[in-house]
TrEMBL record:
Domain IstB-like ATP-binding residues, every copy: 67-257
Organism of origin: Virgibacillus phasianinus
Name used for this protein in its record: DnaC replication protein
BP GO annotations: DNA replication
Record Pfam families: IstB_IS21
Length: 259
């Protein structure tokens, strides 16, 4: 093999020019080559040496493909584990239409939260029924998943029911559910205080809140502070309020705005 390589004809080369490639910013040597053998023997061709534009383009394509795969994985996980009403699946930040200045301010706060997301800051949306607390919460998860964050939206009453069901049915186990809840970059716990109050539910809520310590969580509730504290107990309430910005959302019923 080595002997054959020694006798292989190499094309004649003639330096034509050197320049800096505008695409990759590399110094390029432009040479004229004369093909030594084959059907095109004697033909002159121009070749550029040192340009890495093709390598950069290939790397970008690979990066984009990986990003698309990650995005699909995040969305599949979100849809598989999230417990979300059908009416909220189409909710976005763009189609949230505030019905009062207070709700407009809430939307602006949400926009800032998304733009400055650090994975640690919590928020609690509180106010009367139908003002869009859940809508804005879902919108946040969608925007952050576009940025590559893993998110989860759970109605707390439905979650507790789901956990109980794992005791008697095949499928996702309680350990698996709690592992996902602990792992995600952002968790939304919707409708806190609406769950049936038992010693078990209070204990399970504390377990969830404890696992989320130091990670971003968004809460929604229709209850005021004293009512919420009474419903979830003081220890859970203290965990909920830790590093949490409270957004009060009162105004006309968002879901009945057409009336």
């Amino acid at each position: 093999m080595e002997s054959a390589n020694k006798h292989m004809a190499s094309p004649e080369q003639k330096m034509i020019n050197t320049f800096i490639c505008e695409g990759c910013n590399q110094e390029v040597e432009q040479k004229e080559l004369i093909i030594p053998i084959g059907p095109r023997k004697g033909e002159k061709v121009i070749a550029n040496y040192g340009c890495i534009c093709e390598e950069i383009e290939l790397a970008e394509q690979t990066k984009e493909a990986c990003s698309r795969r990650k995005q699909r994985k995040l969305m599949n996980s979100f849809h598989y584990y999230s417990l979300i009403n059908e009416s909220l699946k189409q909710a976005t930040l763009e189609n949230y239409e505030p019905t009062s200045n207070e709700l407009l301010k809430a939307k602006q706060i949400v926009t800032t939260y998304i733009d400055t997301f650090d994975g640690k800051q919590n928020m609690l949306f509180t106010g009367i029924y139908g003002t869009g607390k859940s809508h804005l919460s879902v919108s946040i998860t969608k925007k952050l998943m576009e940025q590559g964050y893993e998110c989860l939206f759970l109605s707390l009453p439905k979650l507790l029911t789901k956990i109980k069901q794992t005791y008697n049915k095949e499928g996702a186990t309680e350990e698996e559910l709690l592992s996902v809840i602990q792992r995600v970059d952002l968790l939304v716990l919707d409708d806190i205080g609406a769950e049936q109050q038992t010693e078990w539910s209070t204990s399970k809520l504390f377990e969830i809140l404890d696992d989320r310590a130091g990670k971003a969580t968004i809460y929604t509730t229709n209850l005021k502070s004293p009512e919420l504290k009474k419903r979830v107990n003081e220890r859970n309430f203290s965990r909920i309020m830790e590093n949490t910005e409270v957004i009060v959302m009162n105004g006309s019923d968002y879901r009945r705005r057409d009336f």
